[in-house]
Design brief:
alpha/beta, five-stranded mixed β-sheet, three-stranded mixed β-sheet, signal
Length: about 150
């Protein structure tokens, strides 16, 4: 009986690590103006979440740059419209925009960047998206961000 209890306890501890929430994701972007993923799922159990953006292409950021911005879906269009005036030197982002939950810098081919943010900034009752603010990219380079149990 003791042996079975001990075995069950050890298996429970081992499986807890196997099922722990992953609080980070890597999103690849390409010269073909795409994110290789259309969804980011964030566990509600994560206090912080990290997004790693990699540009697997070869073109420079002033030609085919990408960033990754997370915001409420309703704010995506206004953010991308206002980003046009900012230019590549400002990563096509309006500085200190309160609508932006998190963002990476603008990167070119072969580069990568990461951003970590507090999951508490997201509300389960709001739809969120991730997108690129390089001019014209958000139409194809976007996806859903959802909180999951």
């Amino acid at each position: 009986m003791l042996r079975k209890t001990l075995l069950a306890s050890v298996l429970t501890l081992l499986s807890a690590g196997a099922f722990a929430a992953t609080c980070e994701v890597t999103i690849n972007s390409t010269d073909a103006m795409t994110f290789e993923s259309k969804a980011i799922e964030i566990s509600k159990s994560c206090e912080k979440f990290t997004v790693h953006l990699k540009h697997t292409g070869q073109l420079a950021k002033n030609v085919m740059g990408h960033n990754l911005v997370i915001a409420k879906t309703a704010d995506m269009q206004p953010i991308t419209t206002e980003a046009l005036a900012q230019g590549v030197d400002k990563d096509y982002l309006k500085a200190d925009d309160p609508r932006i939950v998190a963002h990476t810098k603008m990167i070119g081919g072969g580069e990568q960047d990461s951003v970590t943010f507090e999951v508490a900034k997201l509300s389960a009752s709001e739809p969120y998206s991730f997108f690129c603010t390089f001019p014209g990219h958000a139409a194809l380079m976007n996806g859903a961000v959802t909180l999951v149990d």
